[in-house]
Write a structure and sequence with these properties.
single chain, Serine Threonine Protein Phosphatase 5, Tetratricopeptide repeat, globular
Length: 209
């Protein structure tokens, strides 16, 4: 933890802040393109994209923001992350877009981030198409711990999002080389994201990494 605090400097946060602005602009642009102006001002927690039938299902209930008022900042950020991932798995694009800016802001408000929390931020970038956010978190994770499996998973994803297949393959080779030793550490984040790691390793092997 001490090493992470010392290395988490201002530059990664500046990059993440820029990525957040890009994400907000992306969401706003998609909503403007896909929705019509509402007749009345939306109440807090409503999602204009869902209300206007952006997903083609007028029967769907408006998006309600989770109640995070009684949670610690760390718990609130994780709750939003879990909501995004559940929505992504359900292919609910409107909810992913609705919660993503809230979640990024929640993580940026934390005084310091664990490697697991940095992975969460990077994954939000991955599912919303913001390569800068994914890459920034991967870079910081790998500066702190060069063989961290989740950092390598993110780094490969970020490279592929940028269209740099050569770099993605290189990160995947590092992932496969580090796999055995890293899994022996039994880090909590490895258990929590075991499926993500397994999918990344299987993909790397299938591509001949």
């Amino acid at each position: 933890m001490a090493g992470e605090r010392g290395l988490a400097g201002a530059l990664p946060w500046a990059v993440a802040a820029i990525a957040l602005l890009a994400l907000v602009a992306l969401v706003a642009g998609q909503r403007i393109a896909r929705t019509r102006p509402p007749a009345t001002t939306a109440v807090a927690g409503d999602d204009a994209g869902v209300q206007s039938g952006a997903l083609g299902d007028a029967s769907r209930a408006p998006v309600a923001a989770p109640d995070i008022s009684n949670l610690t900042p760390e718990q609130a950020a994780e709750r939003l992350f879990n909501r995004i991932m559940a929505s992504f798995e359900a292919r609910d694009t409107a909810r992913v877009q609705f919660f993503a800016p809230m979640a990024v802001q929640a993580y940026q408000r934390l005084p310091r981030l664990t490697l697991d929390e940095r992975y969460h931020l990077g994954r939000i970038g991955a599912v919303t198409g913001v390569a800068q956010l994914t890459t920034a978190q991967a870079d910081t994770m790998l500066r702190i711990q060069p063989t961290h499996l989740l950092g390598l998973v993110l780094a490969a994803q970020g490279a592929r999002m940028r269209g740099d297949e050569s770099a993605a393959r290189a990160f995947e080779k590092r992932l496969l080389a580090a796999q055995a030793a890293e899994l022996k550490k039994q880090l909590p984040e490895y258990a929590q994201h075991a499926n993500d790691i397994a999918r990344a390793i299987d993909g790397a092997k299938s591509r001949g990494g």
